[in-house]
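yo, Peptidase family M50 is done. seq:
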Amino acid sequence: MEILDKINGKSLNNIKISKLDYSGYQQKWILNLNQKKYIVNRDVVIFIKRYESIKLNKSVLQNLNDKDLYILKGLDNIGCFDKEDNILKKSKSGFWLKKIILRSEMLKKFKIISNIFNRYISIITVLSIFINIIVLIKLNFISIYSQKINFNYKEYIFFVLFAIGGILFHEMGHISASLKYGICPKGLGIGMYFMSPVFFVDVDDTWLLSKKQRILIDVAGVYFQAIYTVFITILYLVTYEKIFIYLSVLLASSILFNLNPFLKYDGYWILSDYLGVYNLNKQFSIMIKAVICRIFGVNNYLKELRTKWSNKIIYSVSAYGIISLIFYFYFTISIIMLCKNNIYALITRFNIIIMISTIIYGFFAFKSITSLYNMIRYSIIELFNN
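structure:
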């Protein structure tokens, strides 16, 4: 067999296996191979443990049973026997124009910041955040924010730099929380996600941690950003410069936006880890199918699913999936309407800025329609898949 000739003399000692902490009934493991991670079952783990310390020579391979051969072919398909430099790294779903600006070696230096997760410091910090919210309400920040203020170019630069500082401090939260649990992120990068430029931290290795630890890392970004917002509010109370109240409200609004669970921001990962469901945006199609079939009297899909997940998880993820589809539909329509309004404005009054924004909105409308199409397509395929 060609597969046996290819694997002859190779070994499985380059594979790392960790148990996955999730909410399913069946035990799962993470197969960590050359920057890629795969979820595997007990049979695969037993096979790897059995043969990891020996070379897979012809005499060993010829004595494998059909089940072991099936597992071996699966391992070959995911690149277990390829050279490391031929393995593609896992991409950031939904990101484009992404670029790593700080490698893991540099990020290790931020471990000292992880002391902020000390219990007593955390209590003081959370109290400060609540006080900050009360102060903003007392200041009637909405009326202040709604006032038209004309910044000069120096104030604009100042505003943008402080805003970027808040976003970077957000990412420092994810980095320091990861380091607290012994995981060093692979890098800090910048890219585009739908319509916004974003910083991101590659924390794929946090899948090796417990659910509780993953949730803390997910929350750490907004936690750090909230601390930064407190600092900005204090600057406003000291100087009474309205630019700081603008910054404070902008950063607070950004926190709420980050907690949106329907786009792949922090809220999505918090919900995913809280529920203990990996690949949440894929799993909901499977669970919706089981629930819909149950409504129409077909119980076998739901019965099979109940051997893997609890009823609470099945119905929670199904509800999330339905709301997610509605959100994406609304989100897509909103972008299309923005694009339409810009096209109308461009026809009636040509302007280079309007033209550029129309092209950008058009691109994002295309991306949003593509994402919505893929979600609906995957759901329909899953619904009619036997």
